[in-house]
Amino acid sequence: MSNEKKKIMPDLIRIKLNSKKIEREVVDSEHPLKFYAGRALSSKIIADEVPPLSDPLGPDNKMIFACGFLSGTTAPNSGRISIGAKSPLTKGIKESNVGGRTPALLVRNNIRALVLEEQSPEWVIIKVSDGNVEILDGKKYVGLNNYKLTKTILDEYGSKVGAFMIATGGELQFANSSVASIDMEGYPSRHAGRGGLGSVMGSKKVKAIVVISPSQSLMQYANQEAFKPVASTWFKALNIANKETKHVFGTPGCLLEMNEMHGLPTQNYRRGQFKDAEKIGGEAVHELIVKNKGKYGLACSPGCAIQCSNMILDSEGTHITSSFEYETIGLLGSNLLISDLEKIAQMDKLCDDFGIDTIETGSCLGVLMDAGKIEWGDADRCIELIEGLREKKSESLDLGLGVYELGMKLGHSRIPHVKHQAFPSYEPRSLKAPSITFVTGPMGADHTAGDVSGENPNKSEGKVAISKEKQIHTMIVDSFGICYFVGANSETTAKLSKLVSARYGDTWDKNLDEWTDWAKSCIIMERDFNVASGLAATDTLPKFMLEEKLEEAPFHWDFNPDEIAHYWDDFN
């Protein structure tokens, strides 16, 4: 039986929200998008079909939910999906990826991507079931935040369904709004948080996309027997390597290391070390979990070999939050001089419930503190301010502006951002490799597009090359639907190449150079869209970071501006 008769390649579904039409594109060997998936597919559709100067919240923008080449397979950590659109935050191209149970369910329905086009005149939900897509009335769900909306969806459609959804942040079209994905335990804790993509979904009046697993998976392999041993061996190796690290301490396990390297944002990026870091580090999070009988070592999506997620309970055994991450603890903790883990966890849950990015929100709170609007370390006031979104209080609504617009409204100059997107929890002046990625990456300040790796992280020598390599291989893992914790490097790309050939057939058998050239072309495509949108090909740090050293250490931005300006030259 030929690959096309076996229906190897999942379909692309275009959802015309104004005309209520569903168009199915069969992706075969002749389809122009055959060799695109995940981030690459999302960015390709945006670059080809969205006018660069269009309004991100207008009808010309498109929102893409793109599964990776290996999403939903038995490859380890292959439960990711890329969500993309023109960003209302950066005004450029945007991809934010997320796990949870939903991406794999889309592939089981033999769908590679959903493309939301036009704008619906009334609120709707999208239902995916048995490979079919329907547009249903969604008015009764409007006003529900993510926790109540999740319960409603699971009650109506079954406890095992998945969903992508928006809450207050998306409905009100906040620049920092997220798209939530139901996690493996049934909580809305997994978020495509960066870039304000929830507001694009809100502008299209799509409240949720509900995905129901078919009774039998519609996904097929070209050569499953060749796929299994490579996937199985890799899964076991990843599981063993992370058993005593990320499995136990999760992403907060790196916090003390970041603090030691002067890389932990503290007091709105004045310092890279927090005196109370031990109170909020991975060991402290683990102790809190064990003390209150929470859970650690959870998978964020089906087939996760690393299992770095967690569940935080209070002393009464009541759920506070899930997926309590390093980025969240850094921006809502040390950045604000807050060391009470339970209160940081409460803020995390509120952000998840209202559908707003914890990184952007933590940065907004830091600017409010810096401007004298909140006392440093006042966790209760921060909780009160986020909670005020429930009643749409004006001071709380300001959190939805994003850190750049909030800083401008306050007349405050100390705004930690690139392309109007808040820095993640890495101090750019001390951690040289990620700082290069922040200023050159098409997405703005994005921690998932580059790594902290490399010897002497506080030294600038060699870090431009590290950033380039990481951006190339991260494009590959993002496009394959793989969590970048497997390692974005040439060794991983070689494994992925074997797996994708077994998944789709011999025509996919590319060597390392071919895959890296493909990834470079995808990054250049993103960069060119940004330039056409009015953004620079590369960017720079905010003025205060160019002028100031860290208060506690002699680290400063010491890269040659010409080297940054010509960063992409050898990609063409």
UniProtKB/TrEMBL annotation:
<dbReference type="GO" id="GO:0009055">
    <property type="term" value="F:electron transfer activity"/>
</dbReference>
<protein>
    <submittedName>
        <fullName>Aldehyde ferredoxin oxidoreductase C-terminal domain-containing protein</fullName>
    </submittedName>
</protein>
<dbReference type="Pfam" id="PF01314">
    <property type="entry name" value="AFOR_C"/>
</dbReference>
<dbReference type="GO" id="GO:0033726">
    <property type="term" value="F:aldehyde ferredoxin oxidoreductase activity"/>
</dbReference>
<dbReference type="GO" id="GO:0051539">
    <property type="term" value="F:4 iron, 4 sulfur cluster binding"/>
</dbReference>
<dbReference type="InterPro" id="IPR051919">
    <property type="entry name" value="W-dependent_AOR"/>
</dbReference>
<dbReference type="Pfam" id="PF02730">
    <property type="entry name" value="AFOR_N"/>
</dbReference>
<feature type="domain" description="Aldehyde ferredoxin oxidoreductase N-terminal">
    <location>
        <begin position="8"/>
        <end position="216"/>
    </location>
</feature>
<keyword id="KW-0408">Iron</keyword>
<keyword id="KW-0411">Iron-sulfur</keyword>
<dbReference type="InterPro" id="IPR013984">
    <property type="entry name" value="Ald_Fedxn_OxRdtase_dom2"/>
</dbReference>
<dbReference type="InterPro" id="IPR013983">
    <property type="entry name" value="Ald_Fedxn_OxRdtase_N"/>
</dbReference>
<dbReference type="InterPro" id="IPR001203">
    <property type="entry name" value="OxRdtase_Ald_Fedxn_C"/>
</dbReference>
<dbReference type="InterPro" id="IPR036503">
    <property type="entry name" value="Ald_Fedxn_OxRdtase_N_sf"/>
</dbReference>
<dbReference type="InterPro" id="IPR036021">
    <property type="entry name" value="Tungsten_al_ferr_oxy-like_C"/>
</dbReference>
<comment type="similarity">
    <text>Belongs to the AOR/FOR family.</text>
</comment>
<dbReference type="GO" id="GO:0046872">
    <property type="term" value="F:metal ion binding"/>
</dbReference>
<keyword id="KW-0004">4Fe-4S</keyword>
<keyword id="KW-0479">Metal-binding</keyword>
<keyword id="KW-0560">Oxidoreductase</keyword>
<dbReference type="InterPro" id="IPR013985">
    <property type="entry name" value="Ald_Fedxn_OxRdtase_dom3"/>
</dbReference>
